[in-house]
Structures are given as structure tokens and as C-alpha cells.
Specification:
Helix content is 38%, strand content 22%. The protein is built from 16 helices and 22 strands. Strand 15, helix 13 and strand 16 form a beta-alpha-beta unit. Helix 3 packs antiparallel against helix 7 and helix 10 crosses helix 11. The termini are far apart.
């Protein structure tokens, strides 16, 4: 099938196309339009033209549009989930959950209110500070959660009164293009424009002078390029970037129960989650026992065609990421690190890699220091808790982290010492549309979700009226 873009509420076909490949079998899922520079200009112009009327609408009206969008998403769950599975590779049940999450995020975001502060209200003067929209927002999303990541950007941007040009990753654009088709009769023309293109489109978009705000989720390397490009026009930015999220396991945990939780904390979506556990520090007293439980659990997880019901893990999502993960596995093998399970994949159709556990590699190894973003997890032994905390913090990243213990208070004391934007105790990746999240260090700038995330799409404006002569 050939897909189309949505610009100004209209169907826009591509002059050129690129294939989108199913990572499970290498088959072409569909052809996505390769947005031309002229079409990018048209999308920005459509958003700019729609901005005055959209920003002038009462917030209550914009809230109703977000809820109508959620209803439309829910009504098309199966088709959207099927596209996510086909282009991204996550199991169909997980894809359905992602689509549900988009509708849920839109509804909960619609319940937020923009604050207004009365600074002075007396006989002499009225002074009010309010939040006003920025203008046209570029929303750039990654391939690991095509619709889930869009939910963090589109809803808050629109609720704040901005108009949006959404560009999904070229590795997984089809669900978002279909979303544009579904919403053409729901969202006023020009308020939400959805385009697609190859790798060159991202650079064109971030360098375009017509954007007032760029919200980007992706790698730290690309985030730096986005930041440099945005500086040319002083566009506001929100960057949600890479992570090397540590988990610290205290020696008092229920090993068997914790092993299952830790496995999914690391391997959900085949490890392709920015907030997934990327390295686990396990106390020496329970290291062997927990490593054995993780190994046994990993060997019973069903890996296969994500379109089949019951499959728990699908393939790595695309060739580039597959090569990255295989490169890390090859480095482990060259250096003689022990695989407790998994290891280098067999050459076969699809980008499948079995869940792989690496037994206590050196702290300076690539598999510990780099973000693998795939189904590979190093297990690391520690004797001294302060040493584990120091090793967990010795990273350029600071996105998420977790601490696991039978004593939540003891774990909370450890969590307060971790240098990450979010630290969970006895759970992982709990997110809410009412709670902001973001990264420290090189894991990002700004906040997504919650009131703080909504305010990222606004600017402060103070209005003053002098009442006395």
C-alpha cells in the first residue's frame, strides 16, 4: 500500500517514496511518501495559517478536540496496532496497548489547565501573568513507540494553542501517516500536519525558520544536531535523549519475584525503550542466585513473529539498530565475556536476537558504557553499596534508574543519591500523563507530560493595566 501525508487537512501524495520494511521477515509493508522541500514549506505554512484561529479558541474547545481525537484513535485500534507490529516489530498485544496509550494520553492531557497568576489586583493596577502558545511546533518522534511518542508531543502542543507538524521516524512512519488520515475530519485543517521522509527530512525540518518550537525524541548525538540547528532561529527546544539506565538490587529482595520484574524492565519491546534497564548492579550475596533466575526466565520467553498471538518478544526494529546490537555482542565475544543465555544471532530472515545476559563484564566495557537499546543486558556484581551508586552515576546519561529492595525506605534513601531525571523504587517505567519526566546530563533538556510538559509548549506573558491616573 502507498500512504499519503496530511497537510492543511488535505491528502498529499508524495512525488517520491521509500519502502518501509517488516523487521520480522524483511518484506515491504508499504511505501511512505518522501516529503519534498516544497511540501515541507506547505506544511509549515498550513500550520502558520491555522495558528491564529486555533490559539484564539477557548481552551475548553481545544480540550474537546483532543477528546474527539482519542475517540477516533480508539475506534481504529486494530488497524493502527497492526501497522505498528508490521513496521516496528513489537508483539501485537503490546501494539494494542500502545494505541490505547495514545487515546488515554490525549484524554488525560485534555484535563490539564493552563495556570494564570494574579500578581496585583488593587485600585492602582491589575497585573496578570498567563501562558501563551509559541506558534508552530515541529514534533519529531522515534521508531520504538511510533504513536506512543507522538502522544507526548501532539496533545500538549495542541492544548496549549500551538499548531503542529509531526514527522515520524523513516523506520516506522506508517502508523502516524494512517493517524493523519483518521484525524482529517476531526482536527481543524492545518492544526495537525503529518509528513514523512528519509533521513534528510529531519535536518531540513530542524533548520527550517518557520518553527517556533522543536520537540525531539531520539539519540543524544542527533539531539545535539537538533539543538545546533534550532539555535539559528532561537527556536525553543525539548529534547528527550539517550539513557544508560542503571538498576541497583539490594541483597534483601525476593530473588525469584524480582527476577521476573527485572527481566521485563530490561527486555520489554526487545530492550528498545529509552527508560528500560540497561545495566543491573546486583549485590554479591545474591548475584549467582539472581543471575540463575534471570537466565532460567529468559530461556522460557517466546520470541518470534510479533503478529502471532502469544509471542512475547519480536525482532529488533530495523537494520541499523540490529547492526548496533550485533556489534556490541561481537565485542563481548572478542573480549571473552560470558553469555549466560543468548549471544550472537544465527543468520536468518528477520532481525531477531534472543534475550542475552552478559555475566559481570568489566565496568569499562562497551556493553556497560554504551546504550545498547536492544535485547542485551549486562549483570554487574558489587560488594559495597556506595561503590554501586558511584558506578551507576558514572555515566554521561541520566534519564531513568531504579532501586530494588524488600525495604522501600532503604531503597528510597539510595534513590535520592542517583543522578537521573526519574528514579523508581521496586518498579520501572511507570509514566503518567499527569507527571512530568525528563533527563539529566546528556539525556535531554526540558520535560514531557504533566503540567511541566504542557508549559514547555508555552511562553510566559504578563499583562498590566494601570487603573489610577
Amino acid at each position: 500500500m502507498t500512504y499519503t501525508m496530511t497537510i492543511g487537512g488535505k491528502v498529499v501524495a508524495g512525488n517520491d517514496f521509500f519502502p518501509v520494511v517488516n523487521p520480522a521477515n524483511g518484506a515491504v509493508v508499504g511505501d511512505a511518501p518522501n516529503c519534498s522541500p516544497q511540501q515541507l514549506d506547505a506544511a509549515v505554512a498550513a500550520a502558520r495559517d491555522a495558528f491564529p484561529a486555533w490559539s484564539a479558541r477557548p481552551v475548553a474547545d481545544r480540550q474537546k478536540v483532543l477528546i474527539a481525537m482519542a475517540d477516533a484513535v480508539d475506534a481504529n485500534t486494530e488497524v493502527l496496532a497492526g501497522l505498528i507490529t508490521a513496521e516496528q516489530g513489537k508483539p501485537i498485544a503490546v501494539a494494542r496497548t500502545e494505541v490505547f496509550g495514545l487515546g488515554y494520553w490525549l484524554r488525560e492531557t485534555a484535563a490539564l489547565e493552563l495556570p494564570e497568576t494574579v500578581n496585583q489586583d488593587d485600585a492602582e493596577r491589575l497585573s496578570i501573568t498567563r501562558r501563551v502558545p509559541l506558534g508552530v511546533v515541529a514534533a519529531i518522534t522515534p521508531w520504538n513507540y511510533p504513536l506512543g511518542q507522538a502522544s507526548f508531543k501532539v496533545g500538549p502542543a495542541m492544548l496549549a494553542g500551538n499548531t503542529v507538524v509531526l514527522k515520524p521516524s523513516p523506520a516506522a512512519p506508517l502508523a502516524n501517516l494512517k493517524l493523519g488520515e483518521i484525524l482529517r475530519d476531526v482536527v481543524p485543517d492545518g492544526v495537525l500536519n503529518i509528513i514523512s521522509g528519509d533521513d534528510s527530512l529531519g535536518a531540513q525540518l530542524t533548520a527550517h525558520p518557520g518553527f517556533d518550537k522543536i520537540s525531539f525524541t531520539g539519540s543524544t548525538h542527533t539531539g545535539k544536531l537538533v539543538m545546533a540547528a534550532a539555535a539559528q532561529s532561537l527556536s525553543r527546544i525539548t529534547l528527550e535523549l539517550g539513557g544508560n539506565d542503571p538498576a541497583i538490587v539490594l541483597p534483601d529482595v525476593d530473588v525469584k519475584a524480582t527476577a521476573e520484574q527485572l527481566f521485563w524492565a530490561a527486555f520489554s519491546n526487545s530492550g528498545q525503550i529509552c527508560l528500560a534497564v540497561k545495566r543491573i548492579y546486583i549485590h554479591a550475596d545474591i548475584y549467582d542466585e539472581l543471575a540463575a533466575e534471570l537466565t532460567a526466565y529468559a530461556r522460557n520467553v517466546k520470541v518470534g513473529d510479533p503478529a502471532e498471538e502469544g509471542v512475547q518478544l519480536g525482532p529488533v526494529s530495523n537494520q541499523r539498530q540490529y547492526d548496533t546490537v550485533v556489534g556490541l555482542l561481537e565485542d563481548c565475544e572478542r573480549n571473552g565475556y560470558k553469555f549466560l543465555t543468548g549471544g550472537l544471532p544465527d543468520a536468518s530472515a528477520g532481525f531477531f536476537i534472543q534475550p542475552t545476559l552478559v555475566d559481570n563484564p568489566p565496568e569499562d566495557s562497551r556493553i556497560v558504557q554504551e546504550e545498547q537499546f536492544g535485547p542485551v543486558l549486562p549483570l554487574l556484581k558489587y560488594d559495597d553499596l556506595d561503590d554501586a551508586i558511584a558506578r551507576a552515576n558514572a555515566s554521561q546519561y541520566g534519564l531513568g534508574a531504579s532501586v530494588w529492595s524488600a525495604d522501600p525506605d532503604a531503597a528510597f534513601a539510595v534513590a535520592q543519591q542517583i543522578q537521573s531525571g526519574t528514579v523508581w523504587v521496586n518498579e520501572i517505567m511507570h509514566l503518567s500523563p499527569l507527571v512530568g519526566f525528563g533527563g539529566l546530563k546528556q539525556s535531554g533538556i526540558g520535560t514531557e507530560s504533566g503540567l511541566a510538559g504542557l508549559l514547555e509548549f508555552t511562553e510566559s506573558q504578563t499583562l498590566t493595566v494601570k487603573r489610577s491616573a
